[in-house]
Design brief:
The longest helix has 17 residues. This protein starts with a strand and ends with a strand. By secondary structure, the chain is an alpha/beta fold. A hairpin with a 2-residue loop joins strand 8 and strand 9. It has a 5-stranded parallel beta sheet with strand order 2-1-3-4-5, with helices on both faces. Helices cover 41% and strands 21% of the residues.
């Protein structure tokens, strides 16, 4: 999973980061609410671990803006020292998926994260489908079809395709595609070009209409040209 930790306690954040990374997950971390909200709104994560008492922007405000302005449905676990029922009610009414009171064992956090993400994927609506021309991406099952032909992509390829389909017919910049694929640690080599070549070959087989278009000096767009 790709997980964002928004936590101002450096020691706790480091422990979470190390443990979850050791479980095979990809991690980003933010030490305050404002930078955490920026990451959560600009990137696609599988889940977020969010503290309540954060500098610059408190966790509940981060959550509300994430659900409201950013319209992100990513599962969020509030990890906080607040143990009052009123706090839990405020959290769940604002869009929380789970609430954990510190201290909590790291394995429990990891199990709850996996459970939330698995439940979200299983409960995805059957009609939650991205469509561009005859290309369909079923978000619930992660299956991709072009007409009657099934397309199999790597995880990176699916991330790139999802972004292109959500932005269609707009041009998506190289920088935005790279962030979607690799976060802030973009490879030094022009790896994006290679992935886009593979994606184009997977999407297009003669005599199918070209969907993936290169916009020189800018990026790529996925659309049916008139």
């Amino acid at each position: 999973m790709s997980i964002l930790i928004i936590e101002d306690n450096a020691q706790l954040a480091a422990n979470l980061y190390d443990y979850l990374e050791g479980c095979g997950h990809n991690l980003d971390a933010a030490p305050d609410g404002l930078s955490g909200l920026h990451l959560a709104a600009s990137k696609d994560y599988d889940a977020i671990v969010l503290d309540w008492n954060l500098p610059r922007l408190d966790g509940l405000t981060v959550l509300r803006r994430l659900r409201g302005e950013a319209k992100k449905k990513v599962p969020v676990i509030m990890l906080t020292a607040r143990d009052q029922l009123s706090d839990k009610i405020d959290g769940f009414e604002s869009g929380l998926d789970d609430y954990l009171v510190k201290p909590v064992a790291l394995p429990e956090i990891e199990v709850r994260l996996r459970s939330l993400v698995a439940r979200l994927r299983q409960s995805a609506a059957p009609d939650d489908v991205l469509t561009v021309g005859d290309l369909q991406f079923h978000m619930g099952t992660m299956e991709i079809h072009r007409g009657d032909r099934r397309i199999v992509l790597t995880r990176t390829g699916r991330r790139l395709l999802e972004l292109l389909m959500r932005e269609s017919p707009q041009v998506v910049s190289r920088a935005k595609l790279e962030r979607a694929a690799w976060g802030d640690e973009v490879p030094g080599t022009d790896l994006l070009r290679s992935h886009m070549y593979v994606l184009r070959r997977a999407l297009e087989q003669a005599p199918e209409t070209t969907l993936l278009h290169t916009v020189p000096g800018t990026g790529y767009r996925l659309c049916v040209l008139e």
